[in-house]
Design brief:
The structure is a homodimer. By secondary structure, the first copy, chain A, is of the alpha/beta class. Chain A has helices at about 5-15, 20-25, 45-55, 70-85, 100-105, 120-130, 145-160, 170-180, 200-205, 230-235, 245-255, 275-280, 360-365, 370-375, 385-400, 405-415, 415-425; strands at about 40-45, 60-70, 90-95, 110-115, 135, 160-165, 190-195, 260-270, 300-305, 310-315, 330, 335, 340-345, 355, 430.
Amino acid sequence: MSKSINRRDFIKTSVLAGAGTLLVPKVVLGHPAVREKVRLGFIGTGMRGQWVLWLAAKRPDVEITSICDIDEGMIASALKILKDSGKPEPRVYNNGDEDFRNMVANEDLDGVYIATPWEWHHPMSMAAMNNGINVGTEVPAALTVNDCWDLVNTSEQTGKFCMIMENVCYRRDVIAVLNMVRQGLFGELLHLQCGYQHDLRHVKFNDGKQPYGGGVEFGEKGFSEAKWRTLHSVNRNGDLYPTHGVGPVSTMLNINRGNRFVHLTSTATKSRGLHKYIVDQAGTDHPNAKVKFKLGDIVTTVIKCANGETVVVSHDTNSPRPYSLNFRVQGTDGLWMVDNDSIYIEGVSPEPHRWESAQPFLEKYDHPLWKRFEDQAAGSGHGGMDFFIVRAYIESLKRNVPPPIDVYDAVSMSVISPLSEQSIANRSSLVEFPDFTRGKWKTNARIFGLNDEF
Amino acid sequence: MSKSINRRDFIKTSVLAGAGTLLVPKVVLGHPAVREKVRLGFIGTGMRGQWVLWLAAKRPDVEITSICDIDEGMIASALKILKDSGKPEPRVYNNGDEDFRNMVANEDLDGVYIATPWEWHHPMSMAAMNNGINVGTEVPAALTVNDCWDLVNTSEQTGKFCMIMENVCYRRDVIAVLNMVRQGLFGELLHLQCGYQHDLRHVKFNDGKQPYGGGVEFGEKGFSEAKWRTLHSVNRNGDLYPTHGVGPVSTMLNINRGNRFVHLTSTATKSRGLHKYIVDQAGTDHPNAKVKFKLGDIVTTVIKCANGETVVVSHDTNSPRPYSLNFRVQGTDGLWMVDNDSIYIEGVSPEPHRWESAQPFLEKYDHPLWKRFEDQAAGSGHGGMDFFIVRAYIESLKRNVPPPIDVYDAVSMSVISPLSEQSIANRSSLVEFPDFTRGKWKTNARIFGLNDEF
């Protein structure tokens, strides 16, 4: 567990000297790699962490020198993944909840990847940045407004970045639509919809042995996400998981770079689905049938942007339904809607006021990144988008440039959860977004999806 | 223009004596007609009025004894419709804006049908009820909260009803879905969506001669709806036209009969579409290119109901797009969505979490009214739904029973416009719905679509 102080200090110093460069986004085209390999530490090697570990381990330019988890079974699985990938055995930090602090203090890392329960993303990101290590964190980056500010302030003070690993920004259809937006196909944007509509009942409850379904246990008796994620449904009422929808929408609306979220209102339905699931599966006598879930089954949030656009965000995880991220992108010339896989563009679509299939548009506007990396992305998880988000993180580290989804994006997406909770607690009253860029959104340039680099 | 005072007073007295019966909704099954024919007056014989006049004139149980309009051309068209239908020539009230008052004072009518510019619906409905005449008014019934109260108070005081002619309640798919809701297919309702997404640019602007398109004139230089409707887009920012979506949703949610709308928030996008249309069609030098339109292109309203459901209402009339009323009906067991013409019901749909076509469900749950009147409804306008709404109005008059969509429905739908304007004017702040039933919503029974009568 030796620590290469010299190398570490060198990087820290050089980065701080160039902090202006790091924090002022700019086109990264043509930035050469400043290091051939990056040293990564993995904090959290549960189901999601293992998947990303497997992806990262396939790359010859990645060294995974340490991993951290509190669950011996998960660590064993992670070690096997690395062994099977032909990677050297990493140092293991498994000494309880706070051992990640030893890892970021002792290890000479270019970056950490964090895939732990939501409430740990903030303290782990903070600890990493404060030890001179860049961060790639799973969503959401933080759960409170104060913790969002913490991340911004710490990133600015340390010169380390905090990238949120919002993979849906790279979903093939979504980034093709971003391409359409930027080429003006929809005209001036007016209204976007998105959300997280995913029946998570089999994720929130299981039998304590398998990750998905088979029982109605959660918390201490649950396994994997049911161990912790379900408690958020017990204790919170708001949009608990906005980033898969809002991430892509933010890139299309140039949030934090020419635009920003100004205010929102959130409205929740009653809570029925989780209790019903328990009773339907295990009867009214099961102890969990007494649990009161605070989370409304469907939460609708409406955001107003500085440039006059509106965004509707749906959160819908307690009910039986087909999966959908609810995307709609509408401008003065037409719109795309994901649920009917259709587009209508005035003057382009053959029949007035009639939908046409989105597929030819998605092919025509396929993003340069997908054209370049299509073969590598195949089979990399979540329809290929995991390949791109992991690659973007690693390439940012290698080139020592700001990531394409930065700390301002991390917090402007994540803060929707606490703001929506606040709105719902006050009967859908208006809640203002903090301006985490402190005015820089007015002049910041775009950083995401600019070319085929990352 | 003689007035049968005796008959009129008889009806008025008998109705007032039975006011409790009239105002307490109950199942109308088996109510016999108390009169074989109804005498109708038509106020407003523009495009919409003529259509309904043509429908009503086909019925042997309808006498159209008077019509009222300020436009000689429209009156001439209406007279021709009646003549072609073999109906006697009605008395004509055409002496300016206020001549409708003479009509309702002088004529012996069972009901009036009102199809005038929106701002006239309230004073005309008031005048009719105050003269002992029942009302069927086009949507919306009123434009302000006070005017909504006026209608309620006047209906209660006079014992006359005020039916809002919300035809979409009878749309074949919509009333089939109501049937599904009532048979419990979706489980307990949680979340509904609806709206008015209709590119009205060719309605809001024309050449002053034809009703649809051909120019960018409106107001005094416009024709038909462009003469008056467009001014609402100049002067108001809110959901100007909520009832086509909210009407059906109200029947599904039992609004005013076991449930009610409690509060809403509304958020509007910037206003771009109407100005752009003028400039695109007629250039920046056209005088109308200087007009500032207050109406945001897309207005999103979120309503919370007393029983914990939420409703999202979209208003989207300034942009190129396919027509859609945006329906979604979601409960604890599954959902229907109109835009992809699909349904998913847990335990019923063959594949977990996969949509199936809504068509077999729409056929299976076809409403008894449609089964009975399918042949007559065909060709009657707006996919047959105009047949049912006109029939419901006339049957209510003939049987002397409350209509299936009453004054409380008229105002709880219509009031969304002024409330949404208020919310938008205060940056999407929360606005409370008045309880127009004064608590009776808790015990009122359902009145709409109960059987195959009307």
